[in-house]
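Please decode residue identities from the backbone states below.
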């Protein structure tokens, strides 16, 4: 574990000194020019956690859990921490995209760490947005400490639209609209529509890692969030921080092991990522595995592909035929397999006393199953 002195040096090296450099440049001193806007750091493995009144951790898979564990190891005041989770299927009990147990898993995880959890979602989820036909997108629903709020769309500033096709694989969030519609926009509006963030410093944490892709390798580790208005009338200071941005996958599993957190179910089944079960980036082997063990999901997706006359695959092959081109995983973790189809999460969050922590089958895998 890092000592406070080590963390302080890290903070000086990565935050204080670069900030001084930026200021000296602004004052005309002869230093290497910094192209970064103020408050933006390519590397910031530690930040002054005590300077934030609220710390939000966006939860999904192992990297977000590693982010939460990093906060604990860096000595964050956990009474300021809250977990957020964007439900990609909305409040549907018969989701098209997410794992059946995911809401319940998030609740159990939050309970195990004694932290508040707030769900937020696009009404109707990805499926509802996908079925939009000459109509407006649904409202966003946000859980807050004071109850649930419904955020209607401003119809004076948008026009009705039609999707009637799955999001398509693309770096553009307009084409791959699921990430923006079901997650990013929801998170932004959840901040901008709660007065508790005004006049406060908030740290917004997500779990991206540079090693995941070349685009993520270029991310800044600390920067003002898109909804930051620190200098404006609202004095809403929101920093976006990616604490595990420089972690290798080995370091992610190591921190999970140190804290004895059981790997989430998808990794135990062989998935290398824990995002949507029926992600548009799923490889043929993942579709083969879905079609073998969760055939109803595959059939529903293929049914929509037929209805839209447009497949997820750019090769115009539906997910049933795509799955037929590769062998399915042989799932031997029967406990995880049984859990995968149940809505209530019943497995432990922490490795039980007397048992050794297990690296899951999906660790270090390379089958595509999530956006990077
Ligand atoms: S995990 Fe896949 S399907 Fe789900 S929002 Fe991300 S890119 Fe879209």
């Amino acid at each position: 574990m890092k000592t406070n002195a080590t963390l302080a040096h890290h903070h000086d090296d990565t935050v204080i000194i670069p900030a001084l450099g930026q200021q000296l440049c602004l004052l005309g001193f002869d230093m290497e020019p910094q192209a970064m806007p103020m408050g933006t750091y390519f590397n910031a493995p530690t930040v002054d956690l005590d300077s934030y009144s609220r710390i939000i951790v966006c939860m999904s898979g192992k990297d977000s859990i590693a982010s939460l564990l990093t906060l604990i190891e860096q000595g964050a005041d956990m009474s300021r921490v809250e977990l957020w989770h964007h439900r990609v299927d909305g409040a549907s009990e018969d989701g098209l995209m997410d794992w059946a147990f995911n809401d319940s898993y998030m609740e159990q995880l939050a309970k195990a760490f004694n932290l508040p959890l707030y769900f937020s979602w696009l009404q109707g989820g990805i499926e509802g947005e996908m079925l939009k036909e000459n109509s407006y997108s649904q409202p966003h629903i946000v859980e807050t400490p004071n109850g649930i709020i419904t955020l209607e769309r401003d119809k004076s500033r948008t026009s009705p639209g039609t999707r009637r096709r799955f999001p398509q694989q693309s770096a553009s969030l307009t084409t791959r609209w699921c990430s923006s519609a079901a997650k990013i926009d929801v998170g932004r509006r959840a901040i901008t529509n709660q007065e508790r963030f005004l006049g406060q410093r908030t740290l917004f944490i997500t779990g991206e890692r540079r090693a995941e892709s070349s685009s993520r390798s270029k991310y800044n580790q600390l920067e003002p969030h898109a909804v930051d208005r620190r200098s404006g009338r609202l004095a809403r200071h929101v920093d976006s921080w990616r604490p595990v941005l420089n972690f290798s996958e080995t370091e992610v599993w190591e921190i999970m092991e140190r804290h004895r957190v059981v790997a989430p179910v998808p990794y135990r089944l062989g998935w290398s990522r824990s995002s949507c079960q029926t992600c548009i980036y799923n490889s043929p082997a993942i579709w083969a595995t879905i079609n073998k063990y969760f055939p109803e999901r595959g059939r529903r997706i293929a049914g929509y592909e037929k209805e839209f006359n447009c497949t997820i695959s750019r090769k115009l092959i539906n997910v049933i035929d795509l799955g037929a081109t590769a062998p399915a995983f042989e799932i031997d973790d029967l406990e995880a397999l049984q859990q995968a189809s149940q809505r209530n999460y019943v497995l432990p969050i922490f490795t039980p006393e007397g048992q050794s922590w297990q690296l899951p089958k999906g660790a270090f895998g390379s089958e595509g199953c999530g956006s990077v």
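Observation: Residues 109 and 349 are 6 Å apart (CA to CA).
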